[in-house]
Design brief:
There is one protein chain. The protein has 212 residues and is mainly β. It has a single domain, classed as Porin. Helices cover 12% and strands 62% of the residues. The chain has helices spanning 2-21, 137-141; strands at residues 28-38, 42-43, 52-54, 57-67, 72-79, 82-88, 92-100, 103-109, 117-135, 144-149, 152-164, 169-178, 181-188, 191-198, 202-211. It has an eight-stranded antiparallel beta barrel. The chain has a four-stranded antiparallel β-sheet with strand order 2-14-13-10. The protein is elongated. The two termini are 39 Å apart.
Length: 212
């Protein structure tokens, strides 16, 4: 009888364990990991040299979330500044720009609060601010100066999943898409030039997380 009771207790504890692991209403979620921004850029023609090209960059990514219900969360994406090199046709690399893309999302978590694996999707708004815009030697030698990118507001979406390691820690992976459009302003000699540019990046993130 004692063995039976012990066996039932062990089974009950194993069965109940996942219930304590998942994200649930009232939890705060913090993630940190590697975030890579991969621009899907296009622009108007620039000085008959073609479109701007923007390279990818990887930085520390951070997210902060709050579970409004067992299935719905509010989340903010942050990161250390992303640095991008800008190229133009035969001139090659002409400039470097830094940007921060804080993004505010409502997310829906699939599965119930008893599952260790929680896939999710989300939608929200992205704000991107640009700074430290500067032409390099090649850009300056071509007569370009006074580079400035206008800040951007746009829609955003994401999808991802978290896997609980224990009651507090989890690992995750996610992909984000943001609608980022900006006016690139500069001088070409004495002429003022404005080039409408869409960056529209994919952001890929692998992270570790903690809930409390």
């Amino acid at each position: 009888m004692k063995k039976t009771l012990c066996t039932l207790a062990v089974i009950a504890s194993i069965t109940a364990a996942p219930q304590a692991l998942a994200h649930k209403k009232g939890d705060f979620l913090v993630r940190a990991g590697i975030a890579s921004v991969v621009p899907n850029e296009s622009s108007d023609d620039v000085l008959n040299l073609g479109e701007f090209k923007i390279d990818s960059n990887t930085q520390l990514g951070l997210t902060f979330g709050y579970m409004i219900t067992d299935n719905i969360s509010f989340e903010v994406l942050a990161a250390t500044p992303f640095k991008h090199k800008v190229s133009l046709g035969s001139l090659g690399e002409i400039a470097e720009v830094e940007q921060l893309p804080p993004t505010f999302m409502l997310q829906y978590y699939f599965m119930d609060s008893g599952s260790k694996l929680r896939p999710y999707v989300g939608a929200g708004i992205n704000y991107t601010t640009f700074f430290n815009e500067e032409f390099n030697t090649a850009g300056k030698d071509a007569g370009l100066s006074d580079l400035k990118l206008e800040d951007s507001w746009g829609l955003a979406a994401n999808a991802g999943l978290d896997y609980m390691i224990n009651d507090d820690w989890f690992v995750g992976a996610s992909v984000w898409y943001a609608d980022i459009s900006t006016d690139v302003k500069f001088k070409a000699g004495a002429d003022d030039v404005t080039i409408k540019t869409d960056i529209d990046p994919w952001v890929f993130m692998i992270s570790g997380g903690y809930k409390f």
